[in-house]
Structure formats: C-alpha cells, structure tokens
Amino acid sequence: MADLIATIPPGLVIDGERVESSDGQQIVVADPATGASIATIASASPDDALRAVGAAHSAAKSWRETAPRIRGEVLRKAFELMIERRDELAEVIVRESGKSWADAQGEVSYAAEFFRWYGEEAVRIAGTLMLAPNGDKQIIAAPRPIGVSVLVTPWNFPVAMITRKVGPALASGCTVVVKPASDTPLSALLLSGILDEAGCPPGVVNVVPSSRSSQTVGAMLGDPRVRKVSFTGSTEVGRMLLAQASEQVLKASMELGGNAPFVVMEDVDVDAAVEAALVAKMRNGGESCIAANRFLCHEAIADDFSSRLADRMRNLRMGPGMDRTNDVGPVINERALVDIAGLVDDSVGAGAKVLTGGAARPGQGWYYEPTVVTQVDHDDPILRKEIFGPVAPVTTFVDEDQAVELANDTEFGLAAYVFSGDLGRAMRIAESIDAGIVGINRGFVSDPAAPFGGMKQSGLGREGGHDGILEFMETQYIAAAW
Ligand code: NAD
Which of 14, 50, 180, 329 is deepest in the core (most CB within 10 A)? Predict the structure, then answer.
C-alpha cells in the first residue's frame, strides 16, 4: 500500500508539469485510521495558484475550439480509465479520507459516471433561433463556455466532488484550476494523472493543493482572467467566497451544507424504513452533505423505529477501510471527532437517551461509535447543526403538519427523505419541504443524471444532469438580419 501512495507525484499540477511549491511549503497527509502521516506533498502559494490560472487561461482558446466530440471522447476515456483503476483510486481514497472500502468503491463508480455523462452531454449543447415578434431580425441565443473556472472541493468525496465539476467544465469548453481539500489531495493528484492519460491537453486541468486555502483561492478569485467559481463545502466558507466573487462579478455555483430531515410516517413498513435510514445516515460513515441528520418519526412508531435502527447500527463493524469487512471507518480528523462527541454529550446532558454508541472509541485513529439517541428535544443543537458523523438523533411529531413544519425549521435545504405507505401523501409532504433533493421511500438519491443542489442556505446552482453543464456556460444573444 505504501508503494501506491509513493507512486503519486507529490507536485502541483500546472500546465501539464508536476512542480514544487514556489516557497517550498508542504502538506502532510494523514491516515484517519491511525493518525500517522502517509505522504508529504507540495502546498501551493498564492503565486503558484496564479501561475495555474495563467496556464488555464493560455489553454482556454484551443480547448474551447476543440470539437465537442473530441472533448467528449477525452472524458469518455477518463471514465474508462477510472473504472479500470477503480481499486487503485479506492485505496487512495480510503487511506486519506478513512471511509470504508465499499464506500470508496461506490465513490469511484459514482465519480467516473460524471465523466461518462458529461462526455455524452458535450455533444448536446444547443441554443435557440427564433424570428423576433416584430419580424425585424433573427434572435440567436447560444450558450458559450464561461472561461477559466476555479473549482474548490471538500474532503468527504475527494474524487467525486472533483469529477462532478471537471466533467461539465471540460464538456462545455472551460479550463480549470482545482483546489482540493488539504486533508485529501492525493486522490486529486492521482485523478490528474488519469486525465493526462485520457488525452487532456496541458493547462486544461491544473491542480493546486494548498494549506493556505484562503490566500490561494482569494488570489485566484481576484484575478481578472478567472470568470467562474464552483465551490463545494461548508455554508460558512461558501458565504465568504460568494462575497469575494462579487468583486469581479464571477458566476458562482455553491454546493453547501445540509441538515436533511428523514420523515417517517406512522403508515410505513418499519423494517424497510430502517434499511433506508441506514443508507441515508451511514453512507460515507455519515460524512455526507445529504446524510439524514434528523430522524423525525410519528410518535406512534418512534420507539419501534429507533430500537430497530439501534439494532442495525450496533451490528455495524467499525475499523480501517483497508480491511474490506469493515462497514464504518474513522471520521476525517480529531477536530471532527471532538465536534461530534460534543453534540452527543450536550444532547444527552439535556435529556436525550442513548440507545447505542454514544462515545469515541479509545485508542488509535479517529473513531466514533455508530450511535442512536432518542427523546431529542426539537430545539437541541444536534438537530440544528450538521453532525457529519455516524450519529442518528430521533425526535417525534404528532401529525403531517408538524412533520413538515419541523422538516422546514432550518436554514438549510439540501436533501430530505420521506417515508410513507401512501405515495400520494409522501408526494404531498415532499412538495411541502424546501429541499433541492427529496428521496421518497428510499435512502440513496445521488445520480449523475439528476440535478443535485440546495435551496435556502444550502447553495446556488445545480451539479449533474443537463443543468450541470449550463453552470459553466453563459448565453450570448446575437441579433441578426439576413
Ligand atoms: P470546508 O468549507 O471547510 O472546505 C471546503 C473547501 O474549501 C476545501 O478545499 C477547503 O480547503 C476550502 N476552504 C476552507 N476555507 C477556505 C477559505 N477561507 N477560502 C477559500 N477556501 C477555503 O468544508 P469541508 O469540511 O471540506 O467539507 C464539509 C462540508 O462540505 C459540509 O458542510 C458538507 O455539507 C459540505 N458538502 C456539500 C456538498 C454539496 O453537494 N452540497 C457535498 C459535499 C460536502
């Protein structure tokens, strides 16, 4: 395993070259399963980031003028290489992010699908032509690539959050600079090699890991050659980047935090709801923006649902993802562990009851036990903040109106899940919840062909589907007489 990590070139990727940081600074990458360092790589300075912008800017004209079919074929080839090298990518994801082997494999497949989907979309970018109402001209409206795009991504899906942006950017004809999360830069560097091998020309995709995110990203967003920022991460950082983007009036896509309600009505098949709850909560060990964060159960079935969910959570195997039999890995770092423990401890202090788990595992690595807490008060901070870990808090409601009211009682609006034996009722509730994504009677919702994104403070714009490509384009209207 150490060999695979050692084969990843540790330099920044600028204009197709692997280069050192200009001021020699480095990032030490740790394995969350042990806390030990696994690699040391270059950490970009603001000057390096601006050089990467320069490379993307120089490559922009020729990439924009490359035939859509050729751009699509580069993405298609990258998809195939990712599938061929699925185990290799999964190993790197496991080592630097801590997720389970099954989650890492699932991430690689999901991530690769964005390249396949946008390889196909590259040749389906269409505009409109219409005669003006007064007949004096033709109105030609055509989408054009917006230009150099800065892509800033989080650690929880270190490959998929990059392909979800790079796929549509490249398909539309944009060149990019990727700033991956500093906890998980190795997957980004490995992916960059795959894009090279797929025929992506130098300068089209540049990668600048940096421990100085605010300076490097700030420098890029202040550079007039940049026209777009696409960010996935916390709402707190998203707000700051939106403010910075306003200086140059950049087009901005924001995929931000969530606080997904999982609504269980009294007419469900409880076992089916529990299985889906396990997926919605525990995919990626709970470290997902669309993870079920609040279980809202009808009071008639809350005890039954909670105890069955606790039984399933208790039986999950926790340990390093490199042992493929483990279901749940460690959380990303010590700070995350302390935050999760704090939320649970405070909730218990305020009267909530632990059915299973409820503590960090002593010893090596950053592990928190799969946990179910019940009798959680509606105002408990554990229902207001993103837990981002393997903890399921359960609270109750008395009727459908209260379920919807509680579901909407948050500034977030990314995902929601609704369970009911009556599909009409489930649809009615789904339409009343202010969330960009709703799962009805299922816990897994992500799909590269679907528009993914949040309402309220969970974001702006959509990734995936046809919408995703338009985030990297702007419409030009030509008034023509002939
Ligand atoms: P984060 O906001 O701390 O960091 C995200 C990225 O921004 C990283 O690359 C980081 O280095 C960079 N960054 C941090 N501070 C910055 C600053 N001041 N200026 C510029 N860049 C900065 O988020 P995270 O902890 O990496 O990821 C977890 C968060 O991401 C959660 O809130 C989660 O819900 C969210 N997320 C959202 C989606 C979505 O699609 N909506 C998907 C995955 C994760």
Answer: 329
What percent of the chain is helix, strand and coil (3-state, nearest 5)?
Answer: 40, 25, 35
DSSP annotation of 362: P
- What the block records as the tokens of 288 is 């997902």
Q: Are 392 and 373 in contact (CB under 8 A)?
A: yes
pLDDT grade, residue 117 (50/70/90)? very high
- HSE-CB of 458 using CA atoms within 13 angstroms: 25
Q: What's the CA gap between 272 and 277, in Å, rounded? A: 9
**pLDDT tens, residue by residue, 27-59:** 999 999 999 999 999 999 999 999 999 999 999
Any ligand 1 atom below 6 A from CB of 232: yes
Rounded to the nearest angstrom, the distance between the alpha carbon of 156 and the centre of ligand 1 is 9
Tell how far the Cα of 454 is from the centroid of ligand 1, in angstroms: 15
391 alpha carbon, distance to own chain's centre? 19
pLDDT for position 120: 98
CB 240 less than 6 A from any atom of ligand 1: yes
Q: Which helix (H) or strand (E) holds 254?
A: strand 251-255
- In the three-class reduction of DSSP (H, G, I as helix; E, B as strand; rest coil), residue 234 is classed as coil
Residue type, 125: I
Element (H, E) at 206: strand 205-207
Ligand 1 atom closest to the Cα of residue 255 is: 41
Tell me 8's DSSP state: S
Active site residues: 255, 289
Q: Are 245 and 252 in contact (CB under 8 A)?
A: yes
Residue type, 193: G
Q: Which of 256, 259, 332, 452 to mutate to test the pocket of ligand 1 (most atoms within 8 A of CB)?
A: 256
